[in-house]
């Protein structure tokens, strides 16, 4: 009961890089469990800084029942200016709590967990919302950072085999680095384009940027699939011209995300087609006559599901670091 482990980032990274297929299944099942009411996923809490409007630290508390039976919280910082000095934008920790006693049982480095669950959710959405596959199509990636790299890795693991990748980034060096990664790891044609419009013509478009306000104002075409991972790139008119699949409706329609702006513009949620879990369960269908946009706000239950798996794997491998006497008192009297 009073054991407490730390799982370091290198261990997390090694476990996740070897188990992408398992993570895809874990994320898919977590969505289904959340849809079935087997979770508690309160609002995320944002710590913002007046002198750093682009930076924030977010707390994501959650509980996931089903086979996980853990509560916990992810504390994740996003400081975009880190990238200007070659540091990752995001850093995070995940605390897991035992459901029976409430005691924390582990602290895991969670930037890798957060990136993996985000990328896996994008890949699950891609293969679910384009059931005909990706042969004969192109995938465009807008934004060339860590999340984009992970999304590409998980798309590959999910079997989303495209004919070619297009990468667009305002920072050409980052975009070219992703191109080189794709060529090396997937042996697929990949090229950098400085023209956003060219990227937006691809059959599948993935947004993984740090944009704070919409800049894409032209609606997509029927048959296009848009993975709106960074959430604030699309003008509300673009959202309203598509079928919209969310991870959780209440969570996504807040904080001035693109879907939230669409709700504010229309005063209605009628533009929401349904949730990804609804599509997975066969309860929601999307039209072939409109573009489809997937917008995930990011659920803490996904972090719990992936974190619980990482902790189990680390303990079994002996790579979790036990902290003796972590709790100062283990008896009431």
From TrEMBL:
Q: Which UniProt keywords apply?
A: Plasmid
Q: Which Pfam families match?
A: OCD_Mu_crystall (PF02423)
- Presence of keyword Transmembrane helix: no
Keyword Zinc (UniProt): no
InterPro entries from the entry?
NAD(P)-bd_dom_sf, ODC_Mu_crystall, ODC_N, SbnB
* Source organism, top-level taxon: Bacteria
- Know the name of this protein? Ornithine cyclodeaminase
């Amino acid at each position: 009961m009073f054991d407490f482990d730390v799982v370091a980032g290198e261990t997390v990274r090694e476990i996740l890089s070897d188990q992408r297929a398992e993570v895809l299944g874990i994320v898919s099942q977590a969505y289904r469990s959340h849809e079935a009411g087997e979770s508690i996923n309160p609002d995320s809490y944002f710590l913002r800084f007046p002198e750093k409007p682009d930076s924030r630290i977010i707390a994501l508390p959650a509980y996931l029942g089903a086979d996980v039976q853990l509560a916990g919280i992810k504390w994740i910082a996003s400081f975009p200016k880190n990238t200007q000095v070659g540091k990752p934008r995001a850093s995070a920790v995940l605390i897991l709590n035992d459901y029976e006693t409430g005691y924390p049982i582990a602290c895991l480095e969670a930037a890798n967990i957060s990136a993996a669950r985000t990328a896996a959710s994008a890949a699950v959405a891609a293969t679910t919302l384009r059931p005909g596959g990706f042969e004969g199509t192109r995938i465009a990636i807008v934004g060339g950072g860590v999340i984009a790299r992970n999304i590409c890795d998980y798309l590959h693991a999910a079997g989303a085999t495209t004919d070619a990748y297009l990468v667009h980034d305002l920072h050409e060096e980052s975009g070219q680095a992703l191109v080189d990664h794709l060529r090396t790891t997937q042996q697929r044609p990949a090229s950098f384009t400085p023209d956003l419009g060219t990227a937006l013509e691809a059959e599948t478009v993935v947004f993984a940027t740090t944009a704070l306000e919409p800049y894409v104002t032209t609606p997509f075409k029927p048959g296009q699939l848009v993975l709106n991972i960074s959430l604030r790139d699309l003008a509300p008119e673009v959202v309203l011209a598509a079928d919209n699949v969310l991870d959780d409706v209440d969570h996504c329609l807040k904080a001035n995300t693109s879907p939230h702006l669409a709700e504010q513009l229309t005063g209605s949620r009628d533009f929401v087609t349904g949730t990804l879990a609804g599509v997975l369960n066969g309860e929601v269908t999307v039209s072939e006559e409109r573009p489809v946009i997937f917008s995930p706000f990011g659920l803490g239950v996904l972090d719990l599901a992936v974190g619980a798996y990482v902790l189990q794997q680390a303990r079994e491998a002996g790579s979790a670091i036990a902290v003796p006497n972590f709790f100062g008192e283990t008896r009431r009297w």
